[in-house]
Amino acid sequence: MVALPKLHRKLLRDLTASRAQFGAVVLIIIVGIATFVGSYEAYQNLDSSYEGSYEQLRMADYWISVDYLPRKAATEMNDVPGVVAQGRIVGDVTIDLQLETGEKVSGRVISLPSGEHPEINDVRIESGSYLSPGAQREILLEKRFAEYHQLYPGDWLTIERDSSKVRFRIAGTVVSPEYIWVTKSAQELFTTARTFGVIFMPEERAEEFFGMKGMVNEVNLVLEGGTDPTQALSEVRRVLRRHGIMRLTSKDEPIAVSTRKIDIIQGVRTAYMIERKDQLSNNLLKQDVDGFRQLAVLFPVLFLSMAALAIYVLLNRLVESQRAQIGLMRALGYRTLQIMFHYTGFALVVGVIGSVLGALLGHAIADFLTSVYAVQLKLPFVAVEPHWYVVGLGALIGIIVPLTAGLLPAWATTRMRPAEAMRPPAPRAGHHTLLEVLLPFVSLLPSVLKLPLRNFFRNLRRSFFMAIGVASAIALILVSLSFVDAIESFMHTQFEVIQNYDARLHFQGQGAAATASYIEHLQGIQEAEPVLELPYRLQSGDQVADSSILGLPEDSTMYTLLTLEGHPTTVVEDGILLSIPLKNKLGAEPGDEIHLEPVVGSVGETEKTLAGFINEPLGGRAFMPLQEAQELLRTPGVATGVLLRFDGEPSPALMERLYRLPEVASIEFSGEAKRFVDDLMGFFWAFIGVMLAMGFALGMAIIFNGVTVNVLERRREIAIMRAVGMSQSRLVIILTLENLLIGCLGVAIGIPLGCYIANYFMAQTEMDIMSMTAVIFPRSYIIACVSALVILLVSQIPAIRQVSRMSLPTATKDWSE
Q1: What is the pTM of this model?
Q2: What is the DSSP letter of 532?
Q3: Of 256, 481, 512, 770, which sits most exposed with the smallest number of CB within 10 A?
Q4: Are 249 and 274 in contact (CB under 8 A)?
């Protein structure tokens, strides 16, 4: 019996002899594993960063909002076993920046205890210091708002409420766990730092400012570990009832409009509770991270699937090319399992090397992606740490994938009989190819054209396998580019096609629609349209969605609604139009009745017929005519804002007149909103950039591997053509044309494959607040196809050089070298 170590030496010799091909396979595995480890570990880092920030700053589990409540009620809740409670004052204000930038913007004041950090919903000081003890005229500013308006500790800021203005000194800038994603409301999810800021004020000053001495209007709760939420909240309800709050509602336990009307008549006071999962910032961040998690799984699965295919093709051809050696090993006494494990060893070696290097590269990618995201959202605490189970899982996958792919070719060696394997395969019988049968004139073509066509059709299996490699590369590049195209289309559609206005003026609550007519006559205003946006709960059958309804003028020229096919449309009389996220949530079809229920108040419950669907990438709203939206409130002539189109660049005098209007809370410029959303896409751009680079690298490795093997396994055939006098240049032309034919087949397969995968990926990443449609621009098709064909042509150069230098007598023997 021959000693087994000799097979190990043969394995090393074969790996060295085909180092280029196996190196390409190692690169394929590195890319696949790096993609998995990098993206999924980045997801774990982000999830840990959020949870760590919430834990470090003691974010609340529940928020209870009321009209007013004695501060001692929060103390009584704090005495409930397992409950930590804290009362505070929260109120919306106007920030008067006339002295700083000449603007007025919306703000939200949140009270904090002076001299000591709160037990719940703490803030992290980024610059300056915390609030001093005593009722000082000090405030803390949310970091992004302060940075945008260039406000620093020691500066003074004017806060306005009910025509009363008070100036406060900025003690410091902070980051809050409640406002990691800063947003004003569910109706204004994408709020820029220009138009909204969060202010933290000493409790004593907040009581004076809002006229709530000894009172609070919000209670934050944290349940200690092991506390039964049902029992704890039951005790909290008892405390509320003792203080006149007879009903506690939540998103999961809403009150019917009819009940609200009875409560108003009977004077029943109600509190509203929000759980952490429904807290606006947390909910938006969760949607964002969950969308990334989908991509963190889908892209690695795609890459590793292509890697498995490449390994299968390589090992299958290796086994076929070593038939004689396999027969000899069988004749020398090697057992079938020994030979099978020997060829499985090729997959094991490349798997181990590729998975280890891929895991290390993936860890570095995870650090990069995490840092980009942390900077973008200014996370209070960033957790960048190795998740060894992800690294280990990636390494394990990197070994299992090539082993699985190599199992079938290795198993094929066990079915070879020694005598048959040692005998060269019988030459194929000469016959006309299918192409020559269908197109007889092919036989009359010059040999430089006829031979590539014959070779392509005579070994369709070989041609198909190589075409699949080209198709895989095109699909990988096309899928990555599709996300770039989708983002560009998303931004263009939302901010260039739909939003045709220059700015949106927001009222303080509700104002008069007639204000738009007044504004339209101001010098520098080209056009002005009133809009009315209302928070609503929509229901179709058993499906419910909380959103908003935007009332638009029927002849609106500044807010263009688009059908799913991309055609302009308008709001429909006696009907309602739904965006794609609402369509998916409700599962409704045109003609269905949609039940509309106001989120607040007791007026406006009705039924509307679903008239169709709207392609609005950002927001996820419903639409109806402005007049019908006003009728919901039973208040004709009401609006919540005005869309503005300026006549050129707005002058400082015009902006001052607009800000001085008593109803105005803030003015949001469309360009600012576009830049804000583009900044939010920063992490997405970084991730897609990494995936695009990985896709190109993987595509290059797959094509290089396929072309190299395709040329080298035909050494004898090429040597014979050289021996009969064919020139080197003629031989290169024949091989190039054959590879281009195969490349064209790969293009025909790869384009529809890439489109299908891109559509599937895009469907898996949809969010409630954002809807991106799979779009592939012509340039992406050109880039993918041209890149694949150029890589194909370049990849054949080393292989052609190698066969051109080989010994003709040796190469023309029946057995290869």
Answers
A1: 0.79
A2: E
A3: 256
A4: no
